[in-house]
Amino acid sequence: MKNVKEYIEANKDRFLNELIDLLKIPSISADTAFSQDVIDAARAVEKALKEAGCDTTEICETDGYPVVFGEKIVDPKLPTVLVYGHYDVQPPDPMNLWDSPPFEPVIKKTDLHPDGAIFARGACDDKGQFYMHVKAVEYMIKEDVLPCNVKFMIEGEEEVGSDSLEAFLDKNRDKLKNDVILISDTGMIANDVPSITTGLRGLSYVEVEVTGPNRDLHSGIYGGAVPNPINILSKMIASLHDENNRITIPGFYDKVEELSPEDRALMAEAPFNVEDYKKALDIGDVYGEKGYTTPERYSIRPTLDVNGIWGGYTGEGAKTVIASKAFAKISMRLVPDQDPDEITQLFMDHFMAIAPKGVKVKVKPHHGGLPYVTPIDNIGYQAAAKAYETTFGKTAIPERGGGSIPIVALFEQILDSKIILMGFGLDSDAIHSPNEHFGIWNYLKGIETIPYFYKYYTELATQQ
Predict the structure, then answer these.
(1) Strand, helix or coil at 396?
(2) Which of 356, 366, 387 is nearest to 457 (CA)?
(3) Which residues contact 423 (CB under 8 A, 6 or more apart)?
(4) How far apart are CA 420 and CA 169, in angstroms?
(5) Which partner for 350 in 42, 52, 191, 249 could form a disulfide, CB atoms 3.0-4.6 Å apart?
(6) d(CA 431, CA 436)
(7) Prior bond to 429 cis, omega within 30?
(8) Residues 6 or more apart from 338 whose CB is under 8 A from it?
(9) CA atoms within 13 A on the CB side of 349
(10) Distance CA 143, CA 335 (A)
(11) Residue 52: pLDDT above 80?
C-alpha cells in the first residue's frame, strides 16, 4: 500500500474529472421527470466499475430503479468486502439558493477546504463518497495489492427509502454473500479529527392532510365561522412537543435506549464547541430536548421535525382565502430500540385523536428504517480504526450519527454481516441543502485510507 499516495497524485485530475462527469447527471429518484437520468447514472456507475477492474459488472433490475453490481474475486477462500452506496440524489430545491447550478459542478476554495471543494448536488451524498471506493479498488487491482475479494452494490433509491432493496437482498443472498459491509455515506468530526460512525438513527416519515370546508372560501365572509385547516394543522403540529421539547405522542419513548452516564461521558470527549456550532449555522442559540447536550440531541435522542408545510395561497400579492386543505411532511428520527412501524402507528393514532371535529385528517406513511449500532470490538471496526490511524496519524473517535440510512439494519438481518461506516464528509458540506459540496482533500484522503481497511481487515480475519 506504500505507493497509494503516488498513484493518487498521478491520477488526481482524472479522479476529479470522472466524479465531475458523474455529478453532472441529475439522478433525482424522487422526481419521475428525471427517470432517464437515474438510469443513465446507473449505466455510468457500471462503466466505472468495469474500468476499475471488476471481473463482473451488472445492472440488476428491481421493481424500482436498478442496483449496480460488480465484483472482483481474488480467491474464494479469502474474506469478501461488500461496498454499498447510492447513485441517486436529493432534489436540489430551492434552486434560487444555489450559488451555482446544482448539476454543473464547480470547484471553489473555502475556509474549511483550502484545497478546493466540488460544489454540486450529490457531491458528498453519496456520489463522491461511493466513488472513493471505486477508485481505491482501482488502485488495488491495477497495482496488484488487492488482499481479498470485493463486491459492489450501488443502488438508485436510497433518497426515497430504498423500497426495492429488501426484495433484492432476499433474492440475491448468494450473489451478495460477504464477510463485512463497508459504507461511506456518513461524515467525520473534522479533517484533523477523524471519526468512525458507530450508529445511525432510524426513521419514520409521514405526510398529513387536514381538510376543512369542501372548497376554498372567502376569508371575509366565512372567517371565524368555519374551521381553517391551516390554523388547525399548525396547532396540531405545535402540540406534538411540550415545554421541554419532548415529543407528546403517547408511548413514543417507551422503547428508547437510555445510555449510561459512562457512555454519555465518553461521547462528551469528542470535541464540540457550541459557540462555533451556532456561528456556523448563524443561529442565536441551540434548541432541543431539555436535559441533553447538543451532540446528544442530534445523535442518541429521537426527534420529530416538520420538513414541509403548505396550503392556501402562496403566490405573489394577497388573496383572502380560507383553504380547503392543509398539508405537512413530518419525519421522526429514531434510536435503539424504536421500531419505525410502531412509531408510525403511534403517530397516526395520536394525530387522528387530537384533530377537532370540524376537520378530516389523513396520515400517509412514507418510508422508514430501523436504527443501527455497530460494536467497536468488531474486527471490521478495528480495521477501520487502524486504517484511519495509518493515514491521519491519530486515533479515530467512535461517534453516533444523527442521520439515517434506512437499509443498514436490514443488511445485517438478511446478509448476516456487520456494517462499517467510514465517512469522509463534514457536517458543513450541506448535504440535502443548496450548495452541497465535498472537499477535494477529503475525496482523495478517502481513496488513500480505504485500501488500508482491506489490508487490516484481511489480516485480522485470517488470524481468527
Answers:
(1) coil
(2) 387
(3) 129, 184, 185, 186, 187, 188, 197, 401
(4) 18
(5) 249
(6) 5
(7) no
(8) 202, 255, 256, 302, 371
(9) 11
(10) 42
(11) yes
CA dist 433 and 431 (Å) reads 5
Mean pLDDT of 437-464: 97
In 3-state terms, what secondary structure has residue 161?
coil
Residue 6 CB-density burial (10 A; 0-12 exposed, 13-18 middle, 19+ buried): exposed
DSSP letter, residue 260: P
- Written as one letter, the residue type at 278 is K
Provide the CB-side half-sphere exposure for 409 (13 A, CA): 20
| 8 Å CB contact between 305 and 403 | no
- The answer to whether 88 and 29 are in contact (CB under 8 A) is yes
Give buried/exposed letters for 375-387 (b at 16+ CB in 10 A, else e): eeebbbbebbbbb
> What's at 425, amino acid-wise?
G
What distances in angstroms separate CA 271 from CA 190, 293, 319, 380, 429, one per listed residue? 9, 13, 50, 24, 18
Rounded to an integer, the average pLDDT of 414-431 is 96
Report the DSSP beta bridge partners of residue 333.
Answer: 203, 303
CB atoms within 10 A of CB 31: 13
Q: DSSP letter string over 301-344?
A: S-EEEEEEEEES--SSS---EE-SEEEEEEEEEE-TT--HHHHH
Picking from 139, 128, 177, 155, the residue whose alpha carbon sits closest to that of residue 66 is 155
pLDDT-above-70 percentage for the chain = 100
H or E stretch covering 460 = helix 440-463
Mean pLDDT of the chain: 96
Using alpha carbons, select from 113, 215, 161 the residue that is nearest to residue 439.
113
Q: CB neighbours of 360 closer than 8 A, spacing ≥ 6?
A: 210, 211
**The pLDDT of residue 2:** 79
Q: Which residue has the cell 447550478?
A: 101
Cell digits of residue 444:
482523495
Rounded to two decimals, what is the model's pTM?
0.85
Query: Within 94-191, where are the H helices?
Result: 127-142, 165-171
| Closest to 379 (Cα-Cα) out of 422, 408, 410, 418 | 418
Rounded distance, CA 205 to CA 369, Å? 9
Which residues fall within 8 angstroms of residue 237, CB to CB, at 6 or more apart?
306, 309, 328, 330
> What span, in angstroms and rounded, lies between the C-alpha atoms of 90 and 157?
10
pLDDT tens per residue across span 198-230: 999 999 999 999 999 999 999 999 999 999 999
